[in-house]
Structure formats: C-alpha cells, structure tokens
Amino acid sequence: MTLETVKNDFISHLNKISAYQEALGLIFWDLRTGAPKKAIEQRSEVIGTLSSEVFNLSTSDQMENYIKQLNEHKSELDELTVKMLEECEKEFNRNRKIPEDEFKKYVVLKSKAESVWEEAREQSDFAMFEPYLKELVDTTRRFVGYWGYEGNPYNTLLDMFEPGVTVEVLDEVFGKVREAIVPLVKGIEQSAVKPDTSFIYQQFSKDAQREFSLHVLKELGYDFDAGRLDETVHPFATGLNTGDVRITTRYDELDFRGAIFGTIHECGHALYEQNIDPALTGTPLSGGTSMGIHESQSLFMENFVGRHPEFWKRHLPSLKKFSPEQFKDVSVESFLSGINESKPSLIRVDADELTYTLHIMIRYEIEKGLFNGEYEVSELPDVWNRKYKEYLGVVPSNDAEGILQDVHWSGGSFGYFPSYALGYMHAAQFKNAMLKDIPDFDQHIADGDIAPIKNWMTEKVHRFGKTKKPLDILHEATGEGLNAEYLIKYLQDKYAALYDLEPVK
Amino acid sequence: MTLETVKNDFISHLNKISAYQEALGLIFWDLRTGAPKKAIEQRSEVIGTLSSEVFNLSTSDQMENYIKQLNEHKSELDELTVKMLEECEKEFNRNRKIPEDEFKKYVVLKSKAESVWEEAREQSDFAMFEPYLKELVDTTRRFVGYWGYEGNPYNTLLDMFEPGVTVEVLDEVFGKVREAIVPLVKGIEQSAVKPDTSFIYQQFSKDAQREFSLHVLKELGYDFDAGRLDETVHPFATGLNTGDVRITTRYDELDFRGAIFGTIHECGHALYEQNIDPALTGTPLSGGTSMGIHESQSLFMENFVGRHPEFWKRHLPSLKKFSPEQFKDVSVESFLSGINESKPSLIRVDADELTYTLHIMIRYEIEKGLFNGEYEVSELPDVWNRKYKEYLGVVPSNDAEGILQDVHWSGGSFGYFPSYALGYMHAAQFKNAMLKDIPDFDQHIADGDIAPIKNWMTEKVHRFGKTKKPLDILHEATGEGLNAEYLIKYLQDKYAALYDLEPVK
C-alpha cells in the first residue's frame, strides 16, 4: 500500500468519526431544545450506539495501524495530515491506556452520577451525591495514574482542556488576579456609589427579548444562514459543522440580562466555530483549539463588546423601542451602572464580571487539592464554605447554593473550570493586541461596525481550528505568553470608574 | 456458538441498524424544519456515511451468516425472531441481487434526478427531466430483471410498497371505483347545488391556525409527550421511535384547509407510529406494515373523523373563536358544503376526496404501462394529458401542472402511488368494521370522545407494526380481503347528500 493510500484511508476513517459526532451533536441539540420527553429512552440507546462507534473507531487496531504507518513516514506528510495524526495519537494513547472494562464502568458511572446530582441538588443534599463524587474522583485519580503526569497529577487534567497550562502557571496568574480583585471588591463595598438596578427587574416580554437578541446577533456578524437561535434552560453554542453553528439562550421576563448577555456570550463561541477554515471540515481539527480560547471568544464578545459603553449608547434606544416603559427614564450612564453592579454572591453563573474569577479560583483550588491528596471528598462542603467566606465574604446556607451548584463534577469534568478564568485573561490580552491594529475600536462599536473586530479574531484565532495549540495562538496574536496584567488593568479601570474608586497606579 | 448467542448477536446487529436509522430520521426532520442552509453540504456527507453504514450492515457477510444460521434452526425460534429474520432476508435478497456498482450509480442518479426535477418543474420543461426519468425507468426495469417477477413486472414494484397487491387486484378494484366515481363527477357537474366557498379564502392568522391545530390534535389523542408539531413546506409525519413521532403542517393564511386537514391527516400517521408495541422498538418490525395501511390511518382520520359532520358541529364554534370575522355568518351546513366542494382539477395534492382517486389511477396506469413496455418515457406528457382529459375532463396547460407535478418518480419511487388509493379503500373498510364494535361512532365524534376509535385502531392495526402483513391485518380486522365497495358506498352517499343527486341503488 502506498503512503498516499494509507493517508486517504486514514482521512476517510476520520471523516466517518466526524460524521458520527455531527449526528450526535444534532441529537444533543434536539434533546435540549424540544425533543418530546418519551423520546429520551430510546434516543439514549442511539447515543450509546453512536458514541461507542466513535470510541471504537478512535481506539481500533485500524487506528493504531494508521498511526504507526503514518508515523514511519511523518517527514513525508503534509502539515495538515501531521496535525491530524498528532491529534488522533493523543486521543488514542489517552483512551487505550485505560483498561476497557474500567472505561465502560466509568461511562456508566458518569451517567448515573449526573442524574443523582440533579436529584441531590434539588434536595440540597450533598450526602446523596457524595459516594458518586468519591467514585468519580477515585476513578479519575486512577486514570491519571495510567496517563502519567509531570510535576503535579492535576496537570494531566488541566492539559485535557487547556494544553500547556499547568498548576505552576495557574498559581501564578490566579495569585496576581486575586491580589488585584480583592481590594477592588473591598473598595466597591465601601464606595458611596450604589447603582440603581430597579430597571432590570421589570417585565420585558420574551418575544421582545428574542427580537432584540436577533437584532444584536446580526450586528455582531453571526451568520443566520449557518445557524439559528433557540431557547433552552441552560444556554449553549454547538458547532455541528462550520455551516451549522447553533446557539441557545434563556428568557427571564423579569430580568433581561440573562437573555441579552447570554446571547452575546454564545455568539462569541459561535463566531469561532462559524469561521474555522472550511478545509478542516470532517477532520478532528475542525473545532476550537481549547476550552480557554473558546471562552476567550465568548467573553470577549460579552464583556469587551457587549458591555462596552459605546455599545449601549448605540443600543439603548432600540432597547427602549422593545420595552418602552421599562427603559423610559433610564440614561445610558445609569444603564451601564446598573448592569455592571458588582456584588459578592453565591452562584457562579449569576456572578458579575469582577467577582466571577473568584468563583473559578475556589473551584480550581478544590480540584487541585483533590488530586494532590490535600482534600478528601467528604470534606468538600466545609472547604467550599470556608473558601466562599474567605474570598467573597458570603457563606451558602445549603448545599444547593454551595457545593452542588455546578454540573461539571457530576460529568467527571475535573480540570475544566480554570478555562473560564483563562478565557477571560486571553480575551483581555487579545483586546489589547487588537487595539494596535484597530486603534479606533471604540468608534467601531459606536458605529455598529463589528466586521473589522470579528475579522481580526478570524484572522488570528478562528480560522486555525485545532491546527495551532492555544498558547501558540495567543503568542502569535499578542506577541507574548499568558499575561494576567491586561485583565487586571481592565477590571481596575472599569470598576474605578463605575464606583468612583481611587485609581490604582 | 449456541443458537441463543447467534440470536442475541443478530438482534444487537438489528438494534445498531435501527439506531443509525433513528439518527438519520432526526437529520431529515431537522433539514426540513429549520436547519440553516449552509448546514446542508456537510450534513449530506453525514447522511451518506450513515446510510452506507445501514446498507452495509443490512447486506454484510455477517448478515448473510445470521440469516443462514437462524434459518437452519427456524423451527426453534420464537415468533418475533422469525418475523425479524424474514424481514431481513427479504431486504438482504433484494439488495444483494443488484451488483454493487449498479446500486451506487443508482443512488447517485436519484440524487441528481431529484434536483433536476426541481429545476425542470420550476421551468415547466419536461425535456430537461426526460433523460433522467428514462435512466431511472431503465435502471428500475433492469433491477426488476434481477429481482424477478410473477405475472407482471410491475408486480415486483407494487410489492415493495404493498406486499401482496398485484396488477390483477388493482385493475379490478380501480375499475370498480372508477365506474362509480365517473357518474358522480358528472352528476356534480350538472347539479344545481353550487357550494359557497368564499369563507375559505379569508385571512386566518398562522398563529391562530396553529392553536386550533394543537387543540384538535389533543382531542384526537396525539400524545404531545411523544411528539411535536412543526411547520414545513410539505407536511409529513416521522416516527423516530414510538416515543418520538413528529408531525409537520403548513399554514396558508388565505386558505386554512391545508393546515387543518393536513394536521389531521398527519395525526393519523402519527397515531399509528405512537401506538406500535414498544417491545418492537429497535427492530425492523417497529414501523408501519405498508404504505397502504399507513395511508389508511391518515385518510381515516382526515376524512372519516376530520370531515365528519358531527366533528364540525362540535368544532365550528371553536373555529369561530380563533377567526371570528371569517366564520361569523357560516353555518355548519354551509361550512360542510364549502369544505367538501368537488371539482375536477389538475393537481393531485389539492384534489378533493372524490376526484383524488382518479389522479392516482392515472399514475397507476402510466407506471404499469412503463414497466409493461406499453409506454416509453418520451410519450409520457402526451399520455398524461390524454388521461387527464379522459378521467377528469381537464388538460394541463404546461408540464409543471401536468407530468412534472409529483416528486415520486424523480426519487425512483415507482409502485408507490397505488398505496394512496388503497389506503383510502382500507380506511372505508376499517370504518365499516369499526361500526360493528362501535355502533355509536357518530356520537363519539359529536362528544369529542375519540379514544374508543383510536383504541380500536391500535388494537386491530397499530400495535402490530410489521409483525403482520397488510392484507392479514385487513382480513383480521374486517373479516375479508380488499373490498372497494365500502369506499364506493361512502362516496356515493356523501356526494349524493351534498349535491342533491339521485341516490345510487
């Protein structure tokens, strides 16, 4: 068999995996957006069949052969094939190192744990979830043993979501960010400025919120010929292929922020996936390069575009058209002051821009401690509450608003949370670099002319998909490695202005 | 390997095929209900991959082995396994008899022919479509050669959609029906009764039509926990699994009939699929037993329930709530007279209950002639126009409203059309048998108490899925074979009353 034939067979094999994943993506989207409830039982079987097939195709002897044969001629291969090969090899090694029966048990455990978590959260009863969480942590610890690690066992988990980022890196940047945020939070607490937020909690019809969301999406460059907007309990974006990247949002008729900022956030994710080079379609390279870079795109859109003062100078008038009574007497200034109110709170997903990162740090420290052997699962509620007291000055009154609030751990996702904060730092760093190429950034926002901003991101980030590693993208786009200073500076300037604080030198 | 093991492996194999088919079903539903247009290119690849997999699994050496091994012990197998085996064997033999390269060419040809047909219909240009239709007919003739036939080559095609029904049967029943309909059509033409249909063509908002449709669906027993109603250009019902049977309808704000009767029609299909024995889920037996029986369910709901005078005595008041101006001065009698207007027309899908069957007969005679060697493709527009003149007294002024109006042939579906008329006959025959068990049928409709009617159909038809052959279902439910008399009597009585005709003795 010639190398060309092996390569073509390998790519067909990858196309097949990608086709099954696309079908799975549609099934998940459908389950969340409106599949009838009696569909679920049999649909789960379909998910099981397709997922097993993906797993089998990714870990088969055939895949092993492709990897072996192509590695023998790596120097003769084109760059794209090399990237695909490396991606597959990584996945293959990760999966093949786990004994098959343990992996199967783990899949079953995750699916059970998720439904137990749901129940436990409803009843606010950590004890109910505890044995499952323990089992998940134990299994993950064992898997890390199979996979191996450098420096710190938790590094291996971090690497799955943010290749190249380690405990050492995170400790440093999180330390800096924390050092900057804590005085800001204190300053705000003591500030005489008390934003009027009463305009937020007023009737704003769902239909009108949707209309406004669509209006904003168009301006941000979301391509409706390659996507659609639906409603779900938990908003998300899903890229089925680059021509079909769907977003969802949720509508609270007594608090429009969830829908508007949620939509803009998901739009950032969607712009990433819509603008990946179509040549990568059908390969494992057609997707975001990491969770952190993905989150940088959504947070960039949400915070650096969607909360920009010029954005609301432009859009408050149209908001007034959609809900005239509500915004009648609201000025741009009081609008910005209201939507940017910062207040320590218990629930991560409802947190403001400033305190959000503290929520992430708490989870990071707990996860790190779990895999370092510092904490055991049984201590977690105490650790959680202690850290909330320490970082945010608030203490959950029950498990539901504390340790049980997030779904991630029930799905075995350890190492994922830090990406949220990393994404935030990346976003600020991209913004800073972008200003050099687009010095009239503010004017573009004021004019609703987002194309140059979107195009910059496509040029520097989107189009590469997974062909570049996250830290390489960051470096090539901004000229440096991970740097928390841009986020810190942004938060300091923003909140000093909003709350009339002493500017930080 | 024990027989038990072979059987279990066989069933797992079938579950896998079923899972892929369910995923495909969802993909098709999604493409029709709202997938963004740029999704299509890559989604087609996904369809190709999954369809090939289904084809491969159905025709693989492994399938051949299962069939061989199970057939050797057929007498030791339970009834359900025997049915599955027979179903798979039929499919296997049909597909394996066609040389692989010819089959592949055929798949490509069909997909090309469909888009050419669309273009040709738009331009009303049969010449554009002719070479593709010729190729499709030639290929199908060759396939019939591989498959073999009894009596008439067209029988083999009929058997694919309506097992057990032959040209001999159809010639007889269609002859009788035609003999009865033609004088009715003439009588109506000469009748002094001219229904007032002006109330139909008035503004009826889409939202209100949808609300009314949902209202009716609930009453008919459609389970919304196992389905949903969406909007498409061409209405359809699709059973993904028995817990997820979706229907679609279309809304014309200046003619409510399409939405209302379309919804009721698709509801009939959906009730069939929702009420198949769940034990058959994941096997090839979980589906309608034939096109004709499926159509009997939709036409039963549409015509025998949805056009029942008692149905409208009950529902006209709620219709008046949904569109007050439109129906303000419309009595039940004039409503029924208007919606049941019969008038020869050119387009099958817009035809009334009485003339519909004539449209089907024309297509039947053309198809039969094509596979008998009586007609060549090039003659079809002439044959078509001549037959429309003869049967309906109207002549298309162009190909778009004549020979090019239906999609079926462009997809290679020859032998499908007669099912529509058979379904109509079955429906009338079921109704007649049902009356013996539910003599107060009319009262149930008047009370909106449809459950006993639906349950009768579930008991006699739905639950069996494909475990019984269509003619067996018909015979067991009605005590006799296909009998056109019930439909004839129904049409004679109905139109005599509506148009004040001499009753037929």
UniProtKB/TrEMBL annotation, chains A, B:
<comment type="similarity">
    <text>Belongs to the peptidase M32 family.</text>
</comment>
<feature type="binding site">
    <location>
        <position position="269"/>
    </location>
    <ligand>
        <name>Zn(2+)</name>
    </ligand>
</feature>
<dbReference type="GO" id="GO:0008270">
    <property type="term" value="F:zinc ion binding"/>
</dbReference>
<keyword id="KW-0479">Metal-binding</keyword>
<feature type="coiled-coil region">
    <location>
        <begin position="63"/>
        <end position="90"/>
    </location>
</feature>
<dbReference type="Pfam" id="PF02074">
    <property type="entry name" value="Peptidase_M32"/>
</dbReference>
<keyword id="KW-0645">Protease</keyword>
<keyword id="KW-0175">Coiled coil</keyword>
<dbReference type="InterPro" id="IPR001333">
    <property type="entry name" value="Peptidase_M32_Taq"/>
</dbReference>
<protein>
    <recommendedName>
        <fullName>Metal-dependent carboxypeptidase</fullName>
        <ecNumber>3.4.17.19</ecNumber>
    </recommendedName>
</protein>
<feature type="binding site">
    <location>
        <position position="295"/>
    </location>
    <ligand>
        <name>Zn(2+)</name>
    </ligand>
</feature>
<comment type="function">
    <text>Broad specificity carboxypetidase that releases amino acids sequentially from the C-terminus, including neutral, aromatic, polar and basic residues.</text>
</comment>
<keyword id="KW-0121">Carboxypeptidase</keyword>
<dbReference type="GO" id="GO:0006508">
    <property type="term" value="P:proteolysis"/>
</dbReference>
<keyword id="KW-0378">Hydrolase</keyword>
<dbReference type="GO" id="GO:0004181">
    <property type="term" value="F:metallocarboxypeptidase activity"/>
</dbReference>
<feature type="binding site">
    <location>
        <position position="265"/>
    </location>
    <ligand>
        <name>Zn(2+)</name>
    </ligand>
</feature>
<feature type="active site" description="Proton donor/acceptor">
    <location>
        <position position="266"/>
    </location>
</feature>
<keyword id="KW-0482">Metalloprotease</keyword>
<keyword id="KW-0862">Zinc</keyword>
